[in-house]
Structures are given as structure tokens and as C-alpha cells.
TrEMBL record:
Keywords: Isomerase, Magnesium, Metal-binding, Phosphoprotein. Its cofactor is Mg(2+). The keyword Cell inner membrane does not apply. Signal peptide: none annotated. It comes from Apibacter adventoris. GO terms for molecular function: magnesium ion binding; phosphopentomutase activity. Belongs to the phosphohexose mutase family. One of its GO terms (biological process) is carbohydrate metabolic process. Residues 43-182, 215-303, 315-434 form the Alpha-D-phosphohexomutase alpha/beta/alpha domain. This is Phosphoglucomutase.
Length: 567
């Protein structure tokens, strides 16, 4: 059926009167929006859903949330027969998140499943912690992370506190697709809901401090922090206070939770504009370090003082380099490294993490983009190798495994410890970063994201990836391409010898090209946003601190040449 024909099926039962009225209005007044809302089913992907709120099969609403939850409930009954099934649910500050969370709880309880539901918005990492702490069979968080205000989402976690991966992801998707809207059980049983509040917050805060505290001493660090109107405001101020940090300044204009995110174009700490107010406030307070978290508090932006005393934003690779090196130093100093430990990374993250792992005598394991794959590495190695920490370039870090997702709360504690230790030594974290480059090599990365929205945008992104596969580059900015990895075909091709080897990582629509001089170019459509992303990475050596500015300049010039090459 075409979009109009599908829309007309929403003009009768089981759809409620308000839904029918909204659909009829689209039919009569907005054919383009009607097509966008009904041209396909909103995909329940391998981690859940993310999309625009509104009526339609390609929108998030009572029925698409209900369908996803009914399919999940059916699968949980298949997996956990004969036992009391429990699911934890959290939600962020977005419009309708609280209402949708209760709707999801109702569908689960209507299916005989017991629910732990947070009374108010909470950070995503706290949901992961809660699943593990309360020994739940699954978890759900309603969030669209850093997407614009019109978006919402639905992420599913398994009983280890990590987002779902094979075989559960595809099996749940199969069950969701089976569900007819008329089959959704909406009439919940409130007696099966337990509401969560301060008690689990305190346990989460205690665990964060326990798993990240290495340093003892004076806490004179001056910290500026913004929640970007999001969920971390519920947890982080108390966490920092309990950890002993007394000079914490919260950006007042962004302290109030607000699903409109009124002071930013995008509530994404990856975007420099999002932290502009925090940087201004930090200069007024003469702060040592600045933090910004995204609305569901899994991503983290960090700004520190450079060698000239100016506040500069770190990219995700730089921030994770500092945090990883700090944690590895402490593990080594405490005699906890014996060759049976590993750090986690992803295929589009900086190769500096291989160098760091080699320097400290641990392994570096990589997975696809997304923290569920780092959590999957932990699951597979349990009982064999101990996970230390892990990160990816998109401003996510996990400093321990008590939470099995990226976690800005505990990551901020590690950053504060590292900054405090540097300050005690009369240094800045920026100088520590340069020390790391001297130790293991200089690496520099940039990211370009091209936004292509809607039905036409998805088609354009698909064609761009098809063009790369049909006509892969033989050289990049004057450097010979010597290897290409296609994660969709699972083939790694050595362009020098022609040898093909299998990539032992789940399939994904990602291409990576490597040159003879260590340059790396990765291309992938985003799994959560209407974007195609290009990751640029160059490397060289750094023998003295005096070379740092020159190396940065050389790297930026080289990446600019690559951008021009790609047009």
C-alpha cells in the first residue's frame, strides 16, 4: 500500500479518536508530512527506536511504542518461562517521555511482567546500573539522546545491563514485526509497578565513587558544569559533592530541565556551540575544567586549559585518551595488570588506544560503533580477561563495568581525579595529553557529519555509500590506499597483494580505508540520526613538546586536503 492507503487504516479501530482526527487532518492538509509519517514502519533496530513524535507508522506514538513493547513482552515470556519477569524503565526530560514511560509500563504489566519505574527522569547510565543492581531481566530507557526536541526514542537492555546484541536483538525485532496494533495490551496493572527514587540514586552514586576513586587529597579543583537542560542534574551535583569536590559551578541558564533545550541549537556536547555558555561562565569563574552532558547523560564534552591557559574543547578521542591513560597508570601502579586485562574501543575510534594498550601491557579489543558492542566484549571475556575501561570517539566513555553503557557521571569523576592530580603537580590536563603523545605517538582526528533528512535524505545517503563501494579511492590526499575494510561484506582487502581476509565482527554498513602513511578514512551512515559520517585520522611521532603546535598544524592541513579530495 502507498502512504495514503496505510494512513486510511488508522481512521478506524483500534486507533483512538484523537489519533484518527490527527491522521484525517494530515490527509486533508499536509500530503508531504503524511507521506513522511506513513511511507515506512519506524524501524525497531538492533538497539531500539529513535524518531520524530507524531501519528503514523514512521513516528513515535502510543501505537508504535505499544507495538515495540508488546513484541518485547512476548519475547521475554519465551526466554524466561515459569519465572517472575522484571523490567526496569527510565526516561529523560523530553516531551511526553514520562507519559510514554507509563504507557510502556502498562503494556508490560498487562502482559504479567513486573516493572521498576523511575518516578522522574534519570540518566541512561543509571538505568543500566539499575538493571544489574535489581537483577532485572531487561531494561528500557525512553530517550532520543542529543537529537532535536521533536524526537524521542526507546532503547532496550538485557539482564547484564547492556543494550541488546545478537541473538536477542534480531529475535526481538522479529517478535515486534509480528505484532498487529490490535493485539497490543494497553490495560496495565499498577499493582505490578514499583516506583524508584532516591534509594537507587544513592546506590548509583556510591558505586560511581567506589569504582573511580584513585586519588586522595585536597579537592581544590574549580569545575564548571552544564546539564544542557538534561537528566544529569538529578545525579551529578550530589555525586561531585559526595566525592569531595567543593568548587562546582552549574551554568544557571541551562540548569532547569527542559525538553525544548532552549539555549542551544542542539543539546549535543559534540557540537562546540552547545558548550559556549559553559565556556563563558568558566572564564568568569576562572575554572580549571568544564563538563557538558547530553540530555540523557551518557555523552560527555570536556574543555580544559591549554598550554597558554585558554579553555579549549577536547574531541572525543582526546578526552578518552586522557581518561584511559590515567586509569591504566593507576591500575599499573596498584599492581593490577598481569596481561589478562583489556580496554575496549570501536572501529571508527582513534588507533591511539592500540598504542596505549601496548604501552601498558594490556589488550585492546574493538567492536562496531556503539557501546553495546564494548559491553558485548565484556560479556564474552567474563572469567577470562578483566575489562578496565573503554570509549568511542562520539564523546562516550565507560571507566568500569558496573555500568554497561557509556556513562558521563563516572567519567566526570575520573576526569576530575586526573585534573586534580595534574593540578597538584603544577600541570594541566592538556600538558598531560602532550605527555601521552610523546609516550605513544601523535594522533589527530576530525569528524564531518552531513545531514540528509527524510525519505529523500535516506536515499541520498544510501547512494553515497554505494558510490564508495563501486569506486573506492586508490589514493587519499596523495597517499596510497593499501587496505580497505568493508564491514557490510565482512571483507578486508590488501590492495598491495590482493589478498582478502574475513572480518570477524558483525556486519555493518561501514567502509574504512588505510593509507601507506597511517592515514585512516571511515565512512558510515549514523544508526540514530539522519546523517552520514566521515571520520578522518592521521598519525605521526612527537619527540618534544615544542613540536606539538607544528604537528597539529600539519595534521589539520592533511585532513583539509582529504576533505577537498572528497569534495
Amino acid at each position: 500500500m502507498n502512504s495514503l492507503e496505510i494512513a486510511k487504516t488508522w481512521l478506524k479501530s483500534p486507533f483512538d479518536e484523537n489519533t484518527q482526527k490527527e491522521v484525517q487532518k494530515l490527509i486533508e492538509t499536509n500530503p508531504k508530512e503524511l507521506d513522511e509519517a506513513f511511507y515506512k514502519n519506524l524501524e525497531f533496530g538492533t538497539g531500539g527506536m529513535r524518531g520524530i513524535m507524531g501519528v503514523g507508522t514512521n513516528r513515535l506514538n502510543k501505537y508504535t511504542y505499544g507495538q515495540a513493547t508488546q513484541g518485547l513482552a512476548n519475547y521475554l515470556h519465551q526466554q524466561f518461562t515459569g519465572k517472575k519477569i522484571t523490567v526496569a524503565i527510565a526516561f529523560d526530560v523530553r516531551h511526553n517521555s514520562d507519559t510514554f514511560a507509563k504507557l510502556v509500563a502498562n503494556v508490560l504489566t498487562a502482559n504479567g511482567i513486573y516493572v521498576y519505574l523511575f518516578k522522574e527522569f534519570r540518566p541512561t547510565p543509571e538505568l543500566s546500573f539499575t538493571v544489574r543492581k535489581l537483577k532485572c531481566d531487561a531494561g528500557i530507557v525512553l530517550t532520543a539522546s542529543h537529537n532535536p526536541p521533536e524526537y524521542n526514542g526507546y532503547k532496550v537492555y538485557w539482564n547484564d545491563g547492556a543494550q541488546i546484541v545478537p541473538p536477542h536483538d534480531s529475535a526481538i525485532i522479529k517478535e515486534v514485526r509480528k505484532v498487529d496494533f490490535a493485539e497490543i495490551k494497553f490495560d496495565g496493572d499498577d499493582s505490578k509497578i514499583t516506583y524508584l527514587d532516591q534509594e537507587i540514586d544513592n546506590q548509583f552514586i556510591d558505586a560511581a565513587i567506589e569504582n573511580t576513586m584513585f586519588l586522595k587529597g585536597k579537592k581544590d579543583l574549580k569545575i564548571v558544569y552544564t546539564s544542557l537542560h538534561g537528566t544529569s542534574i538529578k545525579i551529578l551535583p550530589q555525586t561531585l559533592q559526595n566525592a569531595g569536590y567543593e568548587n562546582v559551578f552549574i551554568v544557571p541558564e541551562q540548569e532547569i530541565p527542559d525538553g525544548n533545550f532552549p539555549t542551544v541549537k542542539s543539546p549535543n556536547p559534540e557540537e562546540p556551540e552547545a558548550l559556549s555558555l559553559a565556556l563563558k561562565y568558566a572564564e568568569e569563574q576562572n575554572a580549571d575544567i568544564v563538563f557538558g552532558t547530553d540530555p540523557d547523560a551518557d555523552r560527555l564534552g570536556i574543555a580544559i586549559r591549554d598550554i597558554n591557559g585558554k579553555l579549549v574543547l577536547l574531541n572525543g578521542n582526546q578526552a578518552n585518551t586522557i581518561l584511559t591513560d590515567y586509569i591504566l597508570q593507576k591500575w599499573k601502579k596498584n599492581g593490577k595488570i598481569d596481561g589478562k586485562q583489556f580496554i575496549g574501543s570501536t572501529i571508527v575510534t582513534s588507533d591511539i588506544f592500540f598504542a596505549l594498550a601496548n604501552h601498558y601491557g594490556v589488550d585492546c579489543k574493538v567492536g562496531l560503533t556503539g557501546f553495546k558492542w564494548i559491553a558485548d566484549l565484556i560479556r564474552k571475556e567474563e572469567g577470562k580477561e578483566k575489562f578496565i575501561c573503554g570509549g568511542e570517539e562520539s564523546f562516550g566513555f565507560m571507566p568500569s563495568d558496573y555500568v554497561r553503557d557509556k556513562d558521563s557521571i563516572s567519567s566526570i569523576l575520573v576526569a576530575c581525579e586526573a585534573a586534580q592530580e595534574a593540578k597538584n603537580e603544577g600541570k594541566t590536563l592538556f600538558e598531560k595529553l602532550i605527555d601521552i603523545y610523546e609516550k605513544v605517538g601523535f594522533y589527530y582526528e576530525e569528524l564531518v557529519s552531513i545531514v540528509k533528512t527524510g525519505k529523500d535524505g535516506a536515499s541520498q545517503i544510501s547512494k553515497m555509500m554505494e558510490e564508495f563501494r563501486a569506486h573506492p579511492p586508490k589514493e587519499i590526499a596523495g597517499e596510497n590506499v593499501i587496505k580497505s575494510d568493508d564491514y557490510q561484506s565482512s571483507i578486508s582487502l590488501n590492495l598491495t597483494t590482493g589478498e582478502k581476509t574475513n572480518i570477524d565482527i558483525p556486519k555493518s554498513n561501514v567502509l574504512i580505508f588505510y593509507t601507506n602513511k597511517g592515514t585512516k578514512l571511515a565512512c558510515r551512515p549514523s544508526g540514530t540520526e539522519p546523517k552520514i559520517k566521515f571520520y578522518f585520522s592521521v598519525q605521526s611521532t612527537l619527540t618534544t613538546k615544542d613540536e606539538f603546535a607544528e604537528k597539529i598544524s600539519e595534521a589539520q592541513i592533511k585532513i583539509q586536503k582529504i576533505k577537498e579530495f572528497l569534495k
